[in-house]
Amino acid sequence: MTQGGAAAPLIEAAGLRKVHAPRGQGAPTEAVAGIDFRVRRGEAFGFLGPNGAGKSTTMRMIAAVSPVSGGTLRVLGMDPAVQGAEIRARLGSVPQDDTLDTELTVRENLLVYGRYFGLPRAVVRERALRLLEFARLEDKADEQVEALSGGMRRRLTIARSLVNEPEILLLDEPTTGLDPQARHLLWERLFRLKQQGVTLLLTTHYMDEAEQLCDRIVVMDQGRIVAEGSPAELITRHCTREVLELRFAADEQAGHAQRLVAAGERVEALPDRLLVYADDGESALAAVHATGAQPLTALVRRAGLEDVFLILTGRTLVD
Questions:
Q1: Fewer Cβ neighbours under 10 Å: the N or C end of the chain?
Q2: Which regions of the chain carry the CATH code 3.40.50.300?
Q3: Which residues are bridge partners to 277 per DSSP?
């Protein structure tokens, strides 16, 4: 315990940096540029950001598989530079791409992985039974992995990452490519893990996923943290309560963007629509009609994390 009775953070970074060595004659690349964050035991903590923002690089440093270039990082009270093996033994990792052995059965994937941690065979067998039930794969236990759907493989990957009963579970884009039903089932499984006290760290490009799963979020851009807070705090701090989406004929769009600047707190012109940010979308729509503008369609919706994300990181595609 720290002073005042508050629990010490499970993960703590201060001025954390990662610099990649130059390729050929190029200059070194700073992937993570001096970030600070703390993760509390039992919370779900998300890293959001465009491609190349430094999210996955940060996760690899936490996983003690990529050395820190500068600053300090403590995971479970330990230094990854000198206690990497001890840290990895207490972590679970779900990579973006499944690394299951497709020639083995579902059950065998769990049994073989458990042996990597030096667990007794009886213990691994008992845990495999529980994890098959957790992942809703009991009826697929003796089928080969190559016969599974994408959602089933993802659930098996998560189940396998839990064989060592980790305190921290790292999830890199856990539901990419899954259909809505599979995503929601996976969310329910992850929520159960959090209820059981497992600390979750995840990266995701799905804003609804971040809102559903994360207690707190950091938004990263170009290796730096540009915002931190709960989903609700970030929306309140960086966006209006509602967004009015307007569509006009293509040749009228630019002219209306200039005329409607007073309809809300901010107007953003996109190629296919105008976004009017306002705390009261219906009042903003009335203000639009008062100017004489007649949009083809008008939609008032609640502002969400995607609006915050695009406001903070921009709409330019990053490869």
A1: C
A2: 1-21+29-90+166-180+190-229
A3: 243, 266
